[in-house]
Amino acid sequence: MARFYTSEKKVTAPKALEVECESLDIQGRGVCKKDGMVYFVEDLMPSEIARVVPFASNGVAGSLSSKDKFFSAKVTKYIKTSDERRAQSCPLQDQCGGCPLEHLPYETALSAKIEGVASLLRKSVIQGTKEAKSTKVSTAKGSSKLGRNSTIKHTLAKKQAAAKNAAKQKELDAVCIQAADLIAEPSFVLRSDEVGYRRACRLAIRGDHGKLHLGFRGAKTKDLVPVTNCEVLTERNNALLEPLKAIVNRMESKKSIGHVELLDSDGAVGVLLRMTEKLNAKDELLLKDFSKEYSVVVSVLEPFKQLDDTEVVRERIITDESDEDARRMFVMSNDCKIFCSPSSFVQVNGKLNHLMIEQVLKEVEPSSEKKVLDLFSGLGNFSLPVAKAGATVVGIDIVSDMVRRANENAKENGIDAEKARFFVADLEEPFESQLWAKDSYDVVVMDPGRSGAKRSVSFMGKLKPKRIIMISCNPLAAARDCIQLIGSGYKLDSWGAIDMFPRTTHIEIMLVFSPEQK
Questions:
Q1: pTM for this one?
Q2: Residue 375 to residue 443: CA distance in whole angstroms
Q3: Residue-wise pLDDT tens digits, 126-172
Q4: Angle formed by the axes of helices 475-487 and 454-463, nearest 10°
Q5: Catalytic residue from among 96, 99, 473, 482
Q6: Which one, of 28, 116, 444, lies nearest residue 124 by Cα?
Q7: Active site residue 473
Q8: φ, ψ for residue 416 (rounded to 5)?
Q9: pLDDT tens digits along 73-102
Q10: Strands, sheet with 188-190, edge to edge from the N-terminal-most edge strand
């Protein structure tokens, strides 16, 4: 009989429906269930009732195929609102979208993020433990004395094998659940001030009839929202918004400015202009005067032609050299002064960075006998405090300029070169043959970017340190890496939550691993 292809039946999402929010997901979205479907709704709190419109989106909610039971949805009308809903404090909230959880009480938003992380890690621990401890299916022959080819004997053997496998699976399930239960709750939670915490930011630029505007990109439209004051920025960053707008509009090469960055260090404030062409002499004088007037360090990222005629982008400081010492930029990492430039990457939340370093020191327990490997080490945010506390540290990062600065910062803080050394390596590419990778270490600290540390985690199975401390800004990547570490013989001892970006969906976590006892 001939069979004809029929396309997959599509589910037609309701045009609009009324839902009640039951809980929040890891992103602070309202979770609503109706008619066997689950809807994730932004800006909706538990107990609130609203009329929503579902829509297709990337991720869990909505390719709209016949198998989907999840949709994203947006509120078109609130029918019942919670007494705990907070009034909008920022007039740009609806346009900017930089604080999507502003409507939630602080502890409510934080709890949702923590519960979401706990759920992710529980699944990872169960999966990783199963991979580490599972055994092959039993091939028992049975104990019957009947002939080799006896049908009865084979039947009995299958039953015995099934019984053994069922018992093993039951035992394994119990072990997995026990391991997951041990990390059900975070061992610590680091909280932040909701406003005035952001010391680093990037400002987009838009031209309008020959005039430039500075601001942030809208979360949904990507259109520029002009900003003259932002609640989450530090006071010194806010004070520069209007003067910056004025100075860029006076520049002859203003059309070549891609974006502007601010870094409110513990020393001077830094201003970075990214240029698509080399800064001209007149604009350089203009920026020098601006630097002097506002006591800031100004730099530009501009094209630069090397001796072999290849073009790169380099940072150039625009400042009066005679006044450089008075306006040096640095951030404090515990009791270490880490010098930087306007383009340097530093943790955005200075207060929580200090608390996070203290937590790392607590887990590392530095001593003169310990050797620590710091992967994705940057300027030495963790490396230098650990070395100053007595341990020997080797730091690895892909950015050569950061590695250079980290070595210089070690000297500036009186740390001997034998106690803290930094090397360049791409940790996403083969690095195992490098000399530092052939050494042994007691503790490994890693703070990768959003993509995680897949290759580095795989390397841990060979390196076999006694403790691994992983800091992650992406719980999904951390959950994936957690499975791999557990599968290679480690156990997750504890984890903690770091609310580095209040009012947003982001949450930072710290995971601590040690070798599984055989």
A1: 0.88
A2: 11
A3: 999 888 877 644 544 445 555 556 677 667 777 777 777 777 778 87
A4: 30
A5: 473
A6: 116
A7: yes
A8: -60, 145
A9: 999 999 999 999 999 889 888 888 889 999
A10: 188-190, 490-498, 508-515, 467-472, 443-446, 371-375, 392-397, 420-424
